[in-house]
Amino acid sequence: MPVIQLRQALREAMSEEMDRDENVFLMGEEVAQYNGAYKVSEGMLEKYGPRRIIDTPISEAGFSGLGVGAACMGLRPIIEFMSWSFTWVCMDQIVNNAANVRYMSGGQYKVPIVFRGGNGIAHQLAATHSHRMESVYARIPGLIVVAPSTPAEAKGLLKSSIRCDDPVIFLENEKMLNEMGEVPDPKDGDFTLPLGIANVERPGKDVTIVSYGRALARVVRPAVEHLANDHGIDAEVIDLRTLRPLDTTTVINSVKKTNRCVIVDEDWGYCGMGSGILFKLQKPLFDYLDAPIEYVHSDEIPVPYNHYLEEAMLPSVDRIVASVKEACYR
Amino acid sequence: MAVTSEVEKRSASKAPGVNGAEDPGKGQSERERLRMMMLIRRFEEKTEQAYKTPRKLPDGSVAQLIGGFCHLYSGQEAIAVGIAAVFNKGFDALVNGYRCHGHSLALGMDPRAAIAELFGKETGCSKGKGGSMHLFQAEVGNHGGHGIVGGHIPLGLGMAFAQSYKKTGGVTYCLFGDGAINQGTFNEALNMASLLKVPAIFIVENNGVAMGTQVERHSAEKDLAKRGCGFNMPHYHVDGNDVDVVMEEMKKAGDRARRGEGPCYISADTFRFRGHSTSDPLKYRTKEEAEKAKLRDPITLYETRLREKGLLSDEQQTALEEGVAEEVNRAFEMAEADPNPPLDSRFDDALSETYPYQPK
Q1: Is the Cβ of A73 closer than 8 Å to some Cβ of chain B?
Q2: Which ipTM was obtained for this model?
Q3: What's residue B12's pLDDT?
Q4: Does the domain at residues A3-188 carry the CATH identifier 1.10.260.40?
């Protein structure tokens, strides 16, 4: 299987879907002539031309709303945000227009649009540019929220998101774009992954760790190795992949087996993504838990600029190990 | 295979038609436009009455037939009817703010479906999920009805973008009130529309007051056509009370956009006779202003013109008035008797797909 960068996996997904469907187009800041602010769309202008790869002014409300209007008319826009942090200025377009127009019209529209870009902390960009937006969007009925944690997931989930008839919030992370991973060769057929299904990426018997996206790639995977090698704790790891709708069945079945659960994300804790997941778990799992569900999240402060302060606010391998040990009474 | 929207499927079979091509009786098209303006006026009067008259239920409790906000269109009818007269149904698009009853009726919505939506009934155009501010009839190109001031202007941009991308030959009429031009979306959408040269006609229905704030107090530039400066597109005034002028100007702007010459921005100047919403006592408006505006009532203006041209007799006028009164009364009666949506229907229409979703 070819090993490629996550960035390239995203590009392959978009290109394959554009080859497949004339109605798919990519729009955003610097996606065309500049070849992408983070080079995700490199070469796509040359391949597909300015009709389908479209640069925009710095007008998030303008071009995200354009995408929604175009989707209502049967196109399948991919709207790239340079950062999900910039969507605070166009939230009305995403929440009131993309998520609500179908419902408010009694089902008269499909809204097949993908909003994608870098989410979360991308190293020393300070508070305004480091927002983790998952809990903001995952609470909105009418939206689908997806967060890949590997190049293969980036490709398979993005292709499904583009084909999906509902608006999808696709959360990448700038620091993950260089990550390498095995991705099925396009020659071996069309590779997609389902939306709304979590993946048990590592079976284990002692504790269930629930995570997604960057937190999973950055700290959960190393922590799990550490737990196995140094503490004798065999953790089952669930990669949520889709945050709305949440695949609670997979998580619940796992915890029924392990009886212990730790949620890890980079969001703030209060009203954060993990809090929402906790709300879905506490009742069905009440009789199965041998310890309270632990939640490892970022510190409840604006994101600081300084490298050491920034790192200190985030979930770490040490924090995860400590929480897992607490959940396991070790 | 590519999945196309329901909207596209519904419109794909029709060829572009020429509006008003058939005129079997002399003045019939003109009288039809007059009738539609009368119908809208009558509909809005009856709506206001219904809004302000709670119903006593058999159990003694009192029910409001119309909930939420309700913004009436009385006084501005010539704009909606003028646009509808040049609108290519199934090809053109219209997207609007929350003062959307008039446009919906003018584009052919059954008055019963419109009032049923205000009543929140199952038979409402949006199945009782949208209400007064969110009337949609996608198959004819009526794309709402949007409640957030200025929030829909980028949608109009996107609809025009889709028309251009797919080369459908359609154009988008994107309407908003004078309050909306102070939102950032106005600047973003008009700038992008011009850059992308999409077939959009941006129309500010300038009734002189954003809720209760007069133009002089909300816009540093009082001449609202000039607010279209800086986008490299034509920007001008149109008499929004004269249905003939509106028609002519919308046709010109539409034809220009269809030729691929890009968007334009029009200030259609008008006056609303009623408050911002039905709960607005209009305290910010002087009697003199209102009296002056009545002299330019779009319905009276048009009636006079048709009489002068010999296209409207006393009998015809009475018949039109009686006809719309009867039609509106019947629509209200039927809608009032219509059922509320089943409670379980509240879970329908949020999403198109079922999940887990695996693409084919």
Answers
A1: yes
A2: 0.96
A3: 37
A4: no
